[in-house]
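User: Is it possible to get a 3D structure for a protein together with its bound compound? The compound here is zinc ion. I've pasted both below.
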Amino acid sequence: MNKIILYHAGYDYFTPDPGEWEFKRCKACGMECDVERNHIGQRTRWGSNDSVFDIFSCPNADVSWHTEVIKILQAIKDTPSKRIAAIMKKDVDDLLIENITDVYALQWMEVSDAY
Ligand SMILES: [Zn+2]
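Assistant: Yes, that's possible. Here is the predicted structure of the complex:
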């Protein structure tokens, strides 16, 4: 049976046009996404017609710390307070440092626009 993974579109799951992107890093953890080229199916879960697109998805998407990172990133976007956002960003940094061993992923997160 296939494992069901709950992806978060825009963070760890992306569906660009075929060939539009060479490469994509996850916005939650900075890891290089797995890619499935020329997928045929519904692009959104809101029932659009079938189309062809590439699927980029993070290999860490099904682990709990990754879901936690995304929840915090969403909370950072929602808070109007820069001080609270800075504190929450530290929580994200801690989770990434604890769980990501790929130095390129960590470097990318430092300069990304995820937060
Ligand atoms: Zn990720």
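DSSP finds three helices and three strands in the chain. The helical segments are 64-78, 82-99, 103-111.
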